[in-house]
Amino acid sequence: MHIVFGVEWRMKKKQGLFFVSVVVLVAVVVNFSLAGANDSVVFGSHETGVVQKGRGDAFTITITFENTGKDDGSWAVNVVFEGGSWSWKGTSKTLTLDENEKKTLVWNGAVPANAAINSVARLVVYYDDSFKALDWWIRVVPASELNIKTSSVT
């Protein structure tokens, strides 16, 4: 009888875990479908790359947005370069777009003076409660460069 009770208990435990897994899966699917319904802004640039900049060097971020939804929309948009040793944050802008309208926003910034040499930071766009990491990176390079002018061997 003890063995039968142990088997029944394990079966109920497996059924319970299965039920919890199904509930979590349904919650994730619903969350993604709701998030997709609210995300009707599209980023217009497909370029990617690593930009070499020195400490204190200026940079310009240009992003074209498009409202792919069926209604007018308004978003609070900001850009950030995020890295392990340094970050830079732009000024938040309000983006209002009619249905199928495109608009380009521009931010100007500079690599922090205390950024570590050879460090990298990735461009991330934040809008309302969402974000998108773009494939743009800044790599901090040394401002000094060694060059051998002359040499001799005797």
Report what the structure shows.
With about 150 residues, the chain is an alpha+beta fold. It has two domains: about 1-30; about 40-140, Immunoglobulin-like (Sandwich), CATH 2.60.40.1710. The protein is about 25% helix and about 40% strand. It is built from one helix and nine strands, in the order αβββββββββ. It has one helix spanning about 1-40; strands at about 40-45, 50-55, 60-65, 75-85, 85-90, 95, 100-110, 120-125, 130-140. Strands 2, 4, 5, 6, 8 and 9 form a six-stranded mixed β-sheet that branches. The protein has a three-stranded antiparallel β-sheet with strand order 1-3-7, with no helix packed on it. Strand 8 (about 120-125) and strand 9 (about 130-140) form a beta hairpin. The longest helix has about 35 residues, at about 1-40. The radius of gyration is 26 Å and the shape is elongated. The N and C termini lie far apart (about 95 Å). Residues about 20-40 have low confidence and may be disordered.
